[in-house]
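re: ur msg from earlier - yeah i can do the biotinyl-5-AMP complex, just paste it... oh wait u already did. ok heres what im feeding in:
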Amino acid sequence: MQAQLHTAVLGKRLIVFNRITSTNDFLKRLARRGAEAGTLVLADQQTAGRGRLGRPWQSSPQVGLWFSFILRPAVALENIGALPLAIAVVVAETLSSLGGQPFAVKWPNDILWQQRKVCGILCEAQISPVLDSHAVDYIVAGIGVNVNQHERDFHSAWGGRAASLAIATGKILDRQKIFLELVRQLDAGLFENLAKNIPLLLWRWRALCPNLGKRVNLRHAQETVAGIFEDIGAGGELILRLADGQCRAFAAGEVSLVK
Ligand code: BT5
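and the outut:
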């Protein structure tokens, strides 16, 4: 696989597992010990795949792409929140061009096909240990793509809210081919001049987000706030226009469309 990548940075070191707990957890250990940016880990199965806030991520064998990589970007701390959105743009655009189907993004970290989740992204950042530093030491970015699951393969509790590329395209797909193309596009989009590219990636994100300008509920901590999804900020935060006309920015939360 490595010989077919032809990338500048991403995958120069590629580690592949049949089974692992979580590619993010494994790679965080390597990153702590100084592993280089671009180190990439792929697993056929994860036994403890995670989403945000420790939520489980279903990572069955032979049907998906479960992978993580290290970034050590020169990006200001306040803009780090834009990273999951930047990754989502690259992944959604690549899947759309490979699958011939439009894939949309959902704030902050999902890729959807017909409002069903096909891919989730988990970015975990470590701030530099140097005192008073406002720099990022490393980010481990994990990407889970459902490729060849059938409807029956998804947890019933998600009631039609998850889908795979096979469901979207009606075809069983070559996972390796999709992986290689995703890695090439992520390499080209994220490893050179990331700080400079982020504004452009955020513009592309806006074009892929059908919820922009719509009435939404944002659930964050213990509160639910209603408003218009006005925009995203330079750090990827969601900007909500409230009923009184004021805007409020959120760095985390769950968005649902008000029907
Ligand atoms: C995410 O979290 O969507 C981030 C998922 C990141 C997974 C990758 S795989 C490689 C790397 N290693 C890891 O351990 N993780 C990363 P969140 O937005 O919190 O969504 C989690 C929710 O999505 C769960 O609570 C379920 O409702 C749902 N879910 C779980 N597995 C799913 C799947 N395979 N497809 C669609 N939805 C799923």
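cool cool. Residues 22-24, 46, 49-52, 55-59, 66-68, 109-110, 117, 120-122, 142-144, 146, 158, 162 surround biotinyl-5-AMP (CB under 6 Å). ping me if u need the other ligands too
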